[in-house]
Amino acid sequence: MTHPMNHTRRGFLGLSAATATALGLAACGGGTQPGESPDGDGGGGGGEANAWILTGGMWPVIESSFERWNEANSDQEISIEQFENDAYKERIRTSVGAGQAPTLVLSWGGGTLTDYVDNEHIVDLSDAAPELQDRLLPSVAENGQVDGVTYGVPVNDVQPVVLFYNQDLFDEHGLEVPTTYAELLDVSAAFQEADVLPLALAGASVWPELKWIQYLTDRIGGPEAIQGVLDGEPDAWSHPAFLEATTRIQELVESGAFGDSYASVSADQDADIALVHTGRAAMLLWLSSAYATFKTAAPDFTADSLGWTTFPTIDGGQGDAANIVGNPANLFSVSSAASDSAQEAAIGWLSEYVYDDVQVDEMIEAGAVPPVQGIEDQLAQSEDADFLSFSYGLAIDAPNFELSWDQALPPAAAQELLSNLSQIFLLEITPEQFVDTMNATL
Length: 442
What we know:
By secondary structure, this protein is an alpha+beta fold. The protein contains 21 helices and 14 strands.
């Protein structure tokens, strides 16, 4: 018998244009698009609205939404440019501060959004989204707020981190999907004996490693551990859960659970996902958005052999097994450096096209879960009903939905976290050194 939370495939915003137009647009002007002269049109302070979006997953649905807007609003077109995840994070970090951000600024919320607000890089969207709170899942809507004021509008799918697995490999080797950390170690050893990589990991991108420290910390010590860090309590990283979580990470590394090539695997190329659907790796801890990538890259495998489950429990741990980590959704904010006309176009798109009926239908068809209330029946009727209902249920029922730490923390602290976490996985520093270094960021 498998755990009841294990599954395989076997078996809005109703905002008016008048509201958007009535918004007081606090344009600062003067910004330019990267690579463009201050007198040019488009980009940061030019007349044409633009947006930078990511690649893969369900982002083609967002691209389709912009295309629909442009077809209906030829005088207010919004141009888009696509980036892989890591490249986007690097470019947006420098562009916002230089006043050269796109009109629509994509973020994950948390510390980055707060930093944008504190430095007046984005505008207050409260009046532009009067129905947002009622339409969205509460945990997702709150992610776009700073001190109760809305600065970011969710635009894509809710993304809890889940444990994906290759059911064929488990069947072939007579193994059960692990539900506890102890079982995970046993299964890992068994797969290694069979020359199968137990856990795929894109260590070259570093941020996928956050999923491991976050879930381990939560399962060991509950959400109170990271909350102390977010509250800036002195020596908050000294909470025992961080020391134990990093110790268990190094236990996994040393046991061979991630193999010996994880540091060269990149998430941007979906190489970690490919390891699972090609049968070279048994499991992958990833955002639920990976489902859409699996479906596009390997539809037959996704339909017949892809499984998913919650993160294993830890004996004696204090965290609720229903807690999840991940991204409530990506957010679009509107740049204060954009022109009045560019801001008006951006807010018009947010108001009329985000989570409209077409986008919700396209998201579900792509294998993604819109973070809106009351769509249980739509999800149940989808060809991906098993996974979508599972993922939606996680988001609704979770006692705590913890934002990815590289977004929850202030930017400087987040960079230090990623650097030190990479060293933990590479066995270059000890858990004690990790704790001491991170305490110095508080």
